[in-house]
Write a structure and sequence with these properties.
The structure holds 3 protein chains of 3 kinds. Chain A is an alpha/beta fold. Chain A contains 12 helices and 14 strands. Chain A folds into 2 domains: 4-198 and 206-234, 3-Layer(aba) Sandwich (Rossmann fold), CATH 3.40.50.970; 238-354, Rossmann fold (3-Layer(aba) Sandwich), CATH 3.40.50. The longest helix of chain A has 21 residues, at 214-234. The radius of gyration of chain A is 22 Å and the shape is globular. Chain A starts with a strand and ends in a 14-residue tail after the last helix. Chain B is built from 11 helices and 9 strands. Chain B has helices at 2-7, 40-54, 72-75, 88-98, 110-116, 118-126, 167-170, 176-181, 197-215, 230-233, 237-251, and strands spanning 60-64, 79-82, 103-109, 132-137, 140-141, 147-148, 186-193, 220-226, 255-259. In chain B, helix 2 (40-54) crosses helix 9 (197-215) and helix 5 (110-116) packs across helix 6. Chain B is globular, with a radius of gyration of 19 Å. A 6-stranded mixed sheet of chain C has the order 2-3-1-4-5-6, sandwiched between helices. The relative contact order of chain C is 0.16. The chains are: A alpha/beta, B alpha/beta, C alpha/beta. At the A-C interface, helix 7, strand 8 and helix 9 of A face helix 1 and strand 2 of C. Bound molecules: thiamine diphosphate (TPP).
């Protein structure tokens, strides 16, 4: 397959099409709109459903409906639109209907701006709606990875009857990179055994999130939790880069991770043994893998385009064993490689100093770090 | 040409002139961010003039939308706030309920009002909220780059209706103002246009009545204004005015759909 | 090794398109590449720019603070980027629109009368391509022929009649820069 240059948003749309998406519902919002516009052109060409909804509230509920019919349905938006979808996402989670949602995150809170951000981390991994649930959240760092993850997202959604969220940011959505597109899949006419298709001569099916009886709702929740545990056990994804001999570790996801990769190379060139850990699944967080690497390093730098959201996951995993330093840019400001490299040198320097002087533990630097 | 210039050579005596045109007090002295030929700037000016003429600048609060007019609050020398997309009528309701003696107006685009905020405007009208709604209909989503709006003309191509708006799957243009006119809580519902100076004068008059309806506590008032979006229509500013006249007017006839009797005097 | 290039000019001067051509050429030459535009309201009328990063392995940051090369097509672009270019980096600017003296002496700066070249090739719309030609002559990121190929494949259909003038402008920009290079190595 030849490589072609694709814009992130359009590549995501084409990957979903090749994965067999049957219905797309969306509402314009920058920096995601090219995804919607691409679908507006391509879906009708293929005889599939495209509809511009009147709002994101409507869009997610249209997805909910199509998913109830067992169709591969998706929507895409950016941060303010995702906030509006929370209600629908909660109903979808409660009724265990599968769907794919793309969030091309931008600066917040509020209307914020249209520059790249990562401040939806809590919202996507922890609070995508009321009630106890987590969507499966995948965070690509390159356009190719966005394509590859989108291509498997419907399989994952249907396998677990869960919401899969592709969490990118404005930079990923707007940038172009060479991509190898996967082959076009046939749309399966087969519907899952829970899908609403009309009774014919089988017993009626119901899809609901309403259980008035407390015991019954608790049982439902227990079943949901059991499923989430399976997802947590099976679907952790990550990449580690130059971590084998690393003394220090940078933890970053998405666009920031690729920027950190440049910084790691710079720091390596300056003689600092540093590596990069990049969670690809944000929920479930690849805790065991990070835990292992952390046990070998002397300091950790977390870099994000937010005020320290993934940082909380990293803290829980590090459990105070080594100092953690945090670099967070907000409001759509993207950290530059030299900024991250400077932070890496800082950790290395502080560590060196405290090891050299009266055997003071590096942890005593905690007052200046997070 | 040269002749004319010579004839108009500057005189040294002080001109005997009278100031007949100046920036309204309600308008901030700042260049706007609007594209050339966009109607928002001129509409802002007329709203500002109206507020000046009614002498209500001190007690008027503006609720800005999400759309090209998102920075309306930077241009009006008024107390203003910024609503979430489509929610301006709800926010205005909140304001009015705690500040019943203030004048509250929303300034909304057609995507904002007729699509994502359809429910908010409907229910504000149902409740007969004492607010004024300035509704600029340019048949597209301007700010996000020209996608289809519920007001987009049948067959019209936009970036999200690349094959032209198909009534079978995307419906026909929505006539919000006529719909709202059927609701008892609405005191004033009219449509005007920006395509000529004569029509612009009528916009101005309608704005005045809309605010007066609120001042007299008659109910919700809405002025729909057909405006130009040369950038997303891919037309020049003058072609855009023709587009309003030739393409939009047949779909969106100008007129008064509801005028409370008490406003007629 | 990664090389970063920023192309910057007024909206409508084709900075983004020139960057895409460079990206296509790099990809077709078997390299890794990223292209990222400035986006949003600043595109209307203001200065638009894109960043292209070319390398041999997966590109890290698609954005850089200190680019290796800058193509500046208007004065605001020189004002913005002159101080940011890496020491030893390169600035190519349009001498038709940019009259002020440069402040840096630790970068290689080349002025190109791109506006005149473009007009000679048939249209002032060709400034971006003449500038790109000049950059490639000075700094062999990809073969000139790869850019030419990218033009053939990616010039939008509605501009088909502009293909010849584009190719002309590409080579004319390159030839001008080549001449300057020879002249300065002899002088
Ligand atoms: C919840 C949410 N969804 C989407 C957006 C993106 N958005 C910003 S403005 C706009 C459309 C505005 O169009 P319109 O109301 O017609 O006003 P115009 O820009 O044409 O004046 C959209 C969809 C947003 N800000 N918030």
């Amino acid at each position: 397959m030849a490589r072609e240059l694709w814009k992130g948003n359009e590549a995501l749309a084409e990957a979903a099409i090749r994965a067999g998406v049957e219905a797309f519902f969306g509402y314009p919002i920058t920096p995601q709109t090219e995804l919607l516009e691409y679908m507006a052109r391509r879906m009708p060409e293929l005889g599939r459903a495209f509809l511009q909804a009147e709002s994101e509230i409507a869009a997610i509920n249209m997805v909910y409906g199509a998913a109830c019919a067992g169709a591969r349905a998706m929507t895409s938006s950016s941060s303010p639109g995702i906030s509006l979808m929370q209600e629908g996402l909660s109903y979808i989670a409660g009724s265990e209907t599968p769907c794919v949602v793309v969030d091309i995150m931008r600066g917040g809170p509020g209307l914020g701006n249209i520059q790249p951000g990562q401040a939806d981390y809590f919202q996507l991994t922890r609070s995508a709606g009321h009630g106890d649930f987590h969507p499966l959240v995948l965070a690509p760092a390159t356009v190719q990875e966005a394509v590859d993850l989108t291509y498997i997202s419907f399989d994952l959604a249907f396998q677990y009857r869960t919401i899969v969220i592709i969490a990118g940011d404005g930079a990923l959505g707007q940038m172009m990179e060479p991509v190898e597109m996967p082959p076009m899949r046939e749309i399966s006419q087969e519907r899952p055994d829970w899908a609403l298709t009309g009774v014919d001569d089988r017993p009626p099916r119901t899809i609901t999130s309403l259980y008035l009886d407390a015991d019954e709702l608790e049982r439902t929740n227990l079943r949901l939790q059991e499923k989430l545990q399976r997802v947590a056990a099976n679907e952790q994804r990550w990449e580690s880069y130059m971590t084998d001999d690393a003394e220090f570790l940078v933890v970053a996801f998405g666009t920031v991770a690729r920027i950190a990769r440049s910084a790691v190379r710079t720091a390596r060139a300056a003689g600092i043994r540093v590596g990069l850990f990049r969670p690809i699944s944000l929920w479930p967080y690849p805790a065991a893998a990070l835990d292992q690497i952390v046990s070998r390093v002397q300091g950790v730098l977390v870099a994000e385009m937010n005020a320290g959201q993934m940082l909380e996951d990293v803290r829980m995993i590090v459990r105070g064993r080594v100092p953690i330093r945090f670099l967070g840019r907000m409001g759509g400001v993207i950290p530059m490689p030299d900024e991250i490299a400077a932070e890496i040198s800082h950790i290395a320097r502080v560590n060196h100093r405290s090891n050299g002087s009266n055997g003071k533990s590096p942890l005593s630097e905690r007052s200046t770090v997070l | 040409m040269t002749m004319l210039l010579e004839a108009e050579a500057p005189t040294t005596t002080a001109p005997d002139w009278e100031l007949v045109y100046q920036r309204p007090q309600t308008l901030v002295d700042a260049p706007t961010h609007y594209c050339p030929g966009c109607s928002h700037g001129a509409i802002h000016r007329m709203v500002a003039e109206t507020i000046d003429e009614l002498g209500i600048r001190g007690c008027t609060i503006c609720v800005a939308p999400v759309g090209c007019a998102v920075f309306a609050y930077k241009y009006f020398a008024l107390d203003s706030c910024e609503a979430a997309h489509g929610r301006a009528p709800a926010m205005a309701t909140g304001l009015k309920r705690v500040l019943p003696d203030r004048i509250i107006f929303t300034y909304q685009g057609d995507g904002d009002l007729a699509s994502i905020g359809g429910n908010e405007i409907l229910h504000a009208a149902l409740r007969g909220e004492q607010i004024s709604v300035i509704f600029v209909n340019n048949a597209v989503y301007g700010m996000t780059g020209g996608q289809m709006a519920p007001t987009t003309l049948t067959g019209m191509r936009t970036t999200s209706s690349p094959y032209g708006r198909d009534p079978l799957t995307q419906g026909r243009p929505i006539h919000i103002t006529e719909m709202l006119a059927t609701i008892p809580g609405v005191a004033y519902a009219v449509r005007r246009s920006m395509h000529s100076v004569a029509e612009m004068r009528k916009v101005k008059k309608a704005l005045r009545l809309a605010f007066q309806a609120q001042m007299r506590g008659l109910g919700l008032s809405i002025v729909e204004i057909l405006g130009a979006c040369p950038t997303n229509w891919h037309l020049t500013p003058t072609e855009s005015l023709d587009f309003i006249r030739d393409r939009m007017l047949p779909e969106y006839p100008l007129g008064d759909f509801k005028v409370d009797e008490r406003l007629r005097d | 090794m990664e090389t970063s290039i920023i192309i910057s000019g007024f909206g409508g001067q084709g900075a983004l398109f020139a960057g895409q051509l460079l990206a296509y050429a790099a990809m077709d030459s078997g390299k890794e590449v990223t292209w990222i535009p400035s986006y949003g309201p600043e595109m209307r009328g203001g200065t638009a720019h894109c960043t292209v990063v070319i390398g041999d392995e997966q590109i890290g940051a698609p954005l850089v603070r200190n680019p290796d090369c800058v193509i500046a097509m208007n004065l605001p672009s020189v004002d913005k980027y002159e101080s940011l270019i890496k020491a030893g980096g390169r600035l190519v600017y349009d001498s038709t629109l940019i009259k002020r003296a440069l402040r840096r002496d630790d970068i290689a700066a080349t002025s190109v009368p791109a506006h005149d070249i473009a007009l000679r090739c048939g249209s002032q719309q060709l400034v971006n391509i003449a500038m790109l030609g000049a950059l490639i002559a000075l700094c062999p990121l990809v073969e000139l022929s790869a850019i030419e190929q990218a033009l053939r494949t990616h010039l939008p259909q509605r501009h088909a009649e502009l293909l010849r003038p584009n190719i002309l402008a590409l080579h004319a920009g390159a030839a001008y820069a080549e001449e300057r290079k020879v002249a300065s190595s002899q002088g």
